[in-house]
Amino acid sequence: MDHFQLRDGVMHAEDIPLPRIAQDIGTPVYVYSRATLVRHARVFREALGGVNNPHIAFAVKSNPNLAVLKVLSREGYGADVVSGGELTRALAADMKPEDIVFSGVGKNAAELLQGLDADIGQFNLESEEEGRELAEIAAHAGKVARCALRVNPDVDARTHAKISTGKAENKFGVPIDRAAEIYSALAALPGLEMRGIAVHIGSQLSTLEPLETAFGKVGALIAELRAAGQSVTHADLGGGLGVPYKAGEVLPSPAEYGAMVARVTADWDCALSFEPGRVIAGNAGILLTRVIRVKRSSNASPFVVVDAAMNDLARPAMYGAWHDIEAVEPTGGKGTSHIVGPICETGDTFAMNREMDTLEAGDLAIFRTAGAYGATMASSYNSRGFVAEVLVDGDKYAVVADRLPPADIMGAERVPDWLE
Ligand code: LLP
């Protein structure tokens, strides 16, 4: 459930009518609902009721806005970060260092040191090479890095190929059949405290089966490691739970996910961590846009040109992703439209032949389920600015990211004097 609903014919975010935000802030603009974020955070935690003291680290990559992180840190969430920049954000949002997990295949030396200096809770190592480098940096700094080894279980998550991470051919983790050997080698190094196993097989998962298969393999690995005399006290089960992008779509619920996890991990005797992103933030945000004009050049569906583009919301162009599109003040008229942005490539298409609310020039519309992997994937392509972000809380709202105008972006560029 989210808090973007029609009231008296006008789409609201909680108690704020969206036309007010469009008028005050302009469009395009991302609008997040605090109540929805909080609700999702609590629903996910409750779903893990069958797990002893779960550690939940919000996947910052899904929505790194500082205000969003602050809402989640106040809900007791930690952070799953994948760069020094995300680590800086998590700390700035008062997430506790011990609640921060650092994932990612390409953490560089400076980032590893940054994590050590911040005394983060856990590094999820993605390779033996990374483990050896971290061990050296830690020993040199007189520190001990708490680590989990991320395994690649070679399981097909049955999601979009670009967001599938647990197949043998994907770049993530170490092959699970070599994991025991690599874990033992890393555990012998000074500077590392190997304490667990991590796994994440992909995002927007629409069925629990692949997760259950992957977790089963992790359980067997933990038993194997312990039999070999290794200590395993932690397991990080990643994120990946999908969300409905189309009205009426049904996906596994957090409760079903939690029940499966509790069942599969019942005898693990491990502290469990989770890294949800989309399931927390996805439906807690929309992208508000205004129709620039409607092109009716033939008998086919009209092109509804909106002021949001692929640089603001990349998912449709990048993954062919579907986002529901609705009028902010629906007239009741329905028709078939192509919804496109102003950018000069055909990839800048949000929907073709979409049966939806009719829209005319000047109308406002929303893209739903844009709270995760929305603003964070924005660019300034076509020298468009960076999109603004707003957080609503009941009957108040605040701009939580200024629109970055094209001139400011150009302002960071320099023409060398030998070109003057
Ligand atoms: N943990 C790790 C190690 C991850 O790589 C990810 C996502 C997550 C957790 C969070 O997964 P979630 O719960 O959000 O599914 N840009 C793509 C999604 C990329 C996901 C990358 N990794 C999209 O727009 O669909």
How would you characterize the overall build of this protein?
The protein is built from twelve helices and 21 strands. The protein is an alpha/beta fold and 420 residues long. It has two domains: 4-31 and 282-410, Beta Barrel (Lyase, Ornithine Decarboxylase, Chain A, domain 1), CATH 2.40.37.10; 34-280, TIM Barrel (Alpha-Beta Barrel), CATH 3.20.20. Strands 4, 14, 15, 16, 17, 18, 19, 20 and 21 form a nine-stranded mixed beta sheet that branches. Strands 5-6-7-8-9-11-12-13 form an eight-stranded parallel barrel, surrounded by four helices. A three-stranded antiparallel beta sheet has the order 1-2-3. α5 crosses α6 and α6 packs parallel to α7.
Describe the secondary structure blueprint for this structure:
Elements: E1 4-7, E2 10-13, E3 16-17, H1 18-25, E4 29-33, H2 34-47, E5 55-59, H3 66-74, E6 78-81, H4 84-92, E7 100-102, H5 109-118, E8 122-125, H6 128-141, E9 145-152, E10 174-175, H7 179-187, E11 192-198, H8 209-227, E12 234-236, H9 254-264, E13 271-274, H10 278-281, E14 285-295, E15 303-306, H11 315-319, E16 325-327, E17 334-340, E18 349-357, E19 364-367, E20 388-393, E21 396-401, H12 406-411
Parallel strand pairs: 4-20, 5-6, 5-13, 6-7, 7-8, 8-9, 9-10, 9-11, 11-12, 12-13, 15-17
Antiparallel strand pairs: 1-2, 2-3, 4-14, 14-15, 14-19, 16-19, 17-18, 20-21
Helix pairs in contact: 2-9, 5-6, 6-7
Quick overview of this protein structure:
By secondary structure, the protein is an alpha/beta fold. Helix content is 28%, strand content 25%. The strands form 3 sheets. Strands 4, 14, 15, 16, 17, 18, 19, 20 and 21 form a 9-stranded mixed β-sheet that branches. Strands 5-6-7-8-9-11-12-13 form an 8-stranded parallel β-barrel, surrounded by 4 helices. A 3-stranded antiparallel β-sheet has the order 1-2-3.
